[in-house]
Amino acid sequence: MSQTASLIHNALIRTHHITSRKKIAHLKKSADKNSCYVLLRRGGPPGIMYCEGNESGVKDWVASVQKLRYKDYQLVARPSQLGNPTEKPFRRPNPRWFEEVTSVKEFGAKMEEYGTKLWWRRAMGYSP
Q: Cross-referenced InterPro entries, in alphabetical order (predicted)?
């Protein structure tokens, strides 16, 4: 595996809401296909999606989300490098891990647990 392929990348998407089980199943299938970790805030507004994996996997997963034509789709943090080249390819126990939460508070707690809370708060516009 090349050094570029092993770098961790992430992206953050905000939508109006995420309620369709059919679309969620598509997101999960795409995460598995692209070997990405995905955290999803489903239910009423706002819908939030966090994706982490290798660069091509994250970019392909984001492209699959765009094709679903979510209302008020916003790529608030474009796919970019997270961490440094000496880190392992994924920080989660399983790179093909798909997780759903139902509140922004739970989503924020997960971001804090993963060490990305400040990045997430800035991307969402919650802090400067």
A: RWDD2A-B_C
CA-to-CA distance for 4 and 65, rounded, in angstroms?
24
Beta pairing partners, 74:
14
This prediction's pTM = 0.83
SS3 percent helix, strand, coil of the chain, rounded to 5, is: 40, 25, 35
Bridge-based pairing of strands 74-82 and 47-53 is unpaired
| pLDDT (0 to 100) of residue 94 | 56
Residue 25 CB coordination number (10 Å): 10
Q: How many domains does the chain have?
A: 1
Counting beta carbons within 10 angstroms of the beta carbon of residue 77, is it exposed (0 to 12), middle (13 to 18) or buried (19 or more)? buried
Domain range spanning residue 48?
A: 3-124
